[in-house]
Structure formats: C-alpha cells, structure tokens
C-alpha cells in the first residue's frame, strides 16, 4: 500500500474517540441469513473464491452483514445522462430529498478527490467510493475516470465503484478494468422492449435520439452485452431494478433470470419512488409504488434464482456514511476548504480491525443461538416477522420514538434473515409523542409479530399491544439476530403450551391483541 500520499489536516482522533463518534451517527443494522458475511443471502468466505471474498467482505452494498459496519460515499461528478426514465427527476442544490439523482452540489474531479480524503479521515470505516450520478457515470466518462485516477493515487485502500444505466457500458469496460474498478451496478428494468417503452421515453445513442420500442431494444441489448463483458473480466456486477406495479413487476422475474444467466453477482429490486412533489413523470401521472409486502413477495420469488440485496436505501448521488444515514452536510465544499485533512492509512487500518472484531463477535453470538434451533423440530411452518429499531452495528440500540425506519427480520426454524426496511415518521418530536405519527408507524409494521427497541414509552407500548404487535425492550443493546432467534424460541414455546396460537401477520384485520387465543 502506498502511504506516501498524505494530505495534512487536523490531527487524527484516537480510535476510542472515533468509535464513540461514529456510534452516535445513525446507520442501519442488519446481517445475513445464516450468521456468515452475506452477499444478499448467506454467502460467506467458505462459499466463494478467496478473490471474490476479498472484494465483498467490507463492501456495504455487496455484503448484507458488512453494511452496518462499513460506510460508503458517492461523489456527484457526473451530471449528464444519456437516457430519460419516467421515475427520475434529477435535482441539484437539494438537501431535502433522499433518493437517487438528487445532490446538494456538483463537484469537479479535484473537488471530489479532496472530499474523499476529508471523509475517509473522519469516517475510518468508509471503504467504498462510488460514482452514481446525479446523471450517469459513463455519460460523463472523462470526469468519472479522472476522479478514479486521483483517488487511486491518494487513497489506494478505498474500493472504487460506479453505477450506470448500461447504454454506454460496452464502450468503457476495458477502461473500467484498467482503473481497478471491481464493482459495477447496472440499472436493468426490463429485457422486453414492449415493457421498456413504458419506462424510457428516449435514449441518446451515437449522437441520435431514439424513442419507444426502438430505444428500449437498443438499451437492453447494450445492457446485456455490457454485463457479459464485465463477467468475462471478473468484475462483480450488481443489478438494480425498480419495481413499477402494473408495468414491470411481474416481468422482473424474467429480468432476474436473464441477468443471472449472464453472470450478475447480486440483484437489487427497489420500490418505485413516485411522490408527486418529486416531479417525475410517474409521480405526476399517479403511478403508485409497491407496498412493502408486494416488494418482499417479488424479492422472495426471485431469491431462488440468485442472491438478492434487500438492504438498499436508494441513496442520493452525494450520500456519505453508513447505509441508512446521510452525513453529506458535514462535508460540503465550503466546509472542506476550512479543514486540515490528513489521510492516515495506518489509523484507518487499525480502526477497521476493531470493526472486524466487533463484527465477528456478532456473528458468533448469532451462531451460538442458532444452534438451539435444531431442537425445534416441531416449529416447521412457523415464521415470525420482527421489526427492529437500530442505530447500526447489528444491535437493538434505538429508542422507539427516535426511529425513522425499522429493519425487518424473518425468523423460522432455519434461522433469521433480514428481509427489508420500513421508513416511518418520527414518533417523538420536540420531546413529545405524535399520535398521528404513531398510527403511520403501526401501519408500516402491521405484518410484524414484534418490534424490538432499546426503550419505549407507556403510550406507544399500549397502542402497539392493541394492534397485536409485541413491544420488546428486553434485548436492548444486544445483537439483533441473536435476539430474534431467542424471541422465536420463546414464541414457539408459547405455541406449544397453548398460550398463543400462531397466525400469519399478513393481514392487519387479524390483530385483536398481543396475546392470541389459545389453541383449541
């Protein structure tokens, strides 16, 4: 590792102080389905080639387990785009929305490189630098590859990623490989131009604008060609797909099969974001997004074909921090100009070693608990959903009223796995509980049997109980999946004894109380 390219800044803080500082920032806390470092499912180091494991083990987007320990950042150096999507409206100088295509400021490659050093010196578990817009990375090739060149020289331990719609991808695969970019994301919403014409009004290809089926046909052919080329070069590829009810929701099963057959490593099916205030075509014409249950159903249907990513946060093009948090406001160009930045590779490495020890302790805690599941032979067919309030690090460590999202885990006799997240309105605002907000929280998690929290007040606890959701605070600050398995074993014991009757929680109308009627 080249440690000669340091940029002087403020003195690097001690590791203990850094650990405390980072713990105070909100991130997500999820982990894989079997206690191993997951790549969308339960894959760990024993399930893949060593060179692949090295690429994914601390990548928060490619490893489900890693994403609550390691951070990423995006730099907004690519404003132009070569296609138009009906779900996209790029916004600049916007700090109030959290979705792809939105940034507070555009950067030059030189500004981006300085920002990366500033972030990496402050957030030592930041391991990944991505270019995801706000347009398309490969519609801005000079800016994209110049940025990668600068980062490779000054921060060689940071992984490089890019996201693209794939239209220009075949033209730049060789350059991507030459820059040591190990991870590429392609947004693929269809493999049938009949479907694609309803998603893409136009593309701009070889200095000509195409529309309708012709545009969709060119786009899908280029996407599949680019994916095959990346696979041939050993570059890991994640496929992003936007689930649009009534347009491509059923078709995404075919997309899943097509990208798997061409070597895609991971498939991320995301919900359409279509609020009218975003100004997208779909938002303005009333196209709805999927429900959480619809999204999970589609992900479940595709999971048998290939690894599924379920922890995506549909990040801004200038996102900074753990997935589920945004610290970009701390690193504006104006603030960075006043910072003395030192890129201390040794301190970063030492901190990441601490992160790994914490991570392995969490994995072992889950493994120990999971061994007891083998004794639950009569639990076959029982499955529960648990919502978790967490700040990150794989722990139940958030107050119910302070949670802006809940992580959802599915637990059965085979173990626990993360299956999604639900964004909610804050219940506690200004020190007081908001009843309207509580109602939205209950609606968001009404298919869950329980909600795990670090702490909860009496009023929300009563309302959750009436809604049939068990509010649980006895696992405060404990590992999430270990706690979920322990809860499941208690739950099965109550079913065995007749204290409760197991019911599937897909329909809110079945909830009449926290304790269900005894088995007849």
UniProtKB/TrEMBL annotation:
Residues 26-47 are annotated as: Disordered. Pathway: Cofactor biosynthesis; Fe-Mo cofactor biosynthesis. PROSITE patterns: MOAA_NIFB_PQQE, RADICAL_SAM. Keywords: 4Fe-4S, Iron, Iron-sulfur, Lyase, Metal-binding, Nitrogen fixation, S-adenosyl-L-methionine. Gene3D superfamilies: Aldolase class I, Dinitrogenase iron-molybdenum cofactor biosynthesis domain. Involved in the biosynthesis of the iron-molybdenum cofactor (FeMo-co or M-cluster) found in the dinitrogenase enzyme of the nitrogenase complex in nitrogen-fixing microorganisms. NifB catalyzes the crucial step of radical SAM-dependent carbide insertion that occurs concomitant with the insertion of a 9th sulfur and the rearrangement/coupling of two [4Fe-4S] clusters into a [8Fe-9S-C] cluster, the precursor to the M-cluster. Belongs to the radical SAM superfamily. NifB family. This is FeMo cofactor biosynthesis protein NifB. It comes from uncultured prokaryote.
């Amino acid at each position: 590792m080249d440690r000669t390219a340091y940029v002087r800044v403020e003195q690097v803080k001690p590791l203990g102080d850094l650990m405390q500082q980072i713990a105070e920032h909100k991130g997500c806390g999820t982990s894989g389905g079997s206690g191993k470092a997951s790549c969308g499912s339960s894959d760990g180091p024993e399930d893949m080639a060593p060179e692949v494991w090295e690429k994914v083990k601390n990548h928060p987007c490619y490893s489900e387990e890693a994403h609550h320990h390691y951070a990423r950042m995006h730099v907004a150096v690519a404003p132009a785009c070569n296609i138009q999507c009906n779900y996209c409206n790029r916004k600049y100088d916007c700090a109030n929305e959290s979705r792809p295509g939105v940034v507070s400021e555009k950067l030059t490659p030189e500004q981006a490189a300085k920002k990366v050093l500033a972030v990496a010196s402050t957030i030592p578990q930041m391991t990944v630098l991505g270019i995801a817009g706000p347009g398309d990375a490969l519609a801005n090739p000079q800016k994209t590859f110049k940025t990668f060149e600068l980062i490779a020289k000054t921060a060689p331990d940071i992984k490089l990623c890019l996201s693209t719609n794939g239209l220009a991808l075949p033209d730049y695969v060789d350059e991507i490989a030459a820059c040591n970019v190990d991870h590429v994301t392609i947004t693929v919403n269809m493999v049938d131009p009949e479907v694609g014409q309803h998603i893409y009004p136009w593309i701009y290809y070889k200095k000509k604008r195409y529309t309708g089926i012709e545009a969709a046909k060119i786009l899908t052919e280029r996407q599949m060609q680019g994916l095959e080329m990346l696979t041939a070069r050993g570059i890991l590829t994640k496929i992003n797909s936007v689930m649009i009810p009534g347009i491509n929701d059923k078709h995404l099963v075919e997309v899943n099969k097509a990208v798997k057959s061409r070597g895609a490593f991971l498939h991320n099916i995301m919900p359409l974001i279509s609020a009218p205030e975003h100004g997208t075509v779909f938002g303005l014409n009333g196209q709805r997004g999927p429900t959480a249950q619809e999204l999970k159903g589609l992900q479940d249907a595709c999971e048998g074909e290939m690894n599924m990513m379920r922890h995506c946060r549909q990040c801004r093009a200038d996102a900074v921090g753990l997935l589920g948090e945004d610290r970009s406001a701390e690193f504006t160009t104006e603030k960075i100009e006043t910072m003395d930045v030192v890129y201390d590779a040794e301190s970063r490495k030492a901190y990441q070693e601490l992160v790994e020890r914490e991570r392995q302790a969490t994995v072992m805690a889950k493994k120990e608990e999971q061994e007891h599941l083998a004794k639950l032979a009569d639990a076959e067919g029982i499955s529960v959903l648990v919502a978790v309030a967490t700040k990150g690090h794989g722990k139940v460590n958030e107050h119910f009223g302070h949670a802006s999202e809940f992580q959802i885990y599915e637990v059965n006799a085979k173990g626990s796995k993360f299956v999604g997240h639900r964004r909610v309105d804050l219940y506690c605002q200004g020190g007081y509980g908001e009843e309207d907000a509580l109602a939205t929280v209950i609606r968001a998690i009404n298919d869950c049997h329980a909600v795990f929290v670090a702490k909860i007040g009496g009023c929300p606890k009563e309302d959750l109980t009436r809604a049939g959701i068990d509010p649980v605070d006895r696992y405060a600050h404990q590992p999430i999946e270990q706690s979920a398995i322990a809860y499941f074993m208690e739950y099965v014991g109550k079913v065995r004894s007749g204290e409760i009757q197991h019911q599937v929680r897909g329909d809110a109308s079945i909830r009449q109380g926290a304790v269900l009627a005894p088995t007849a």
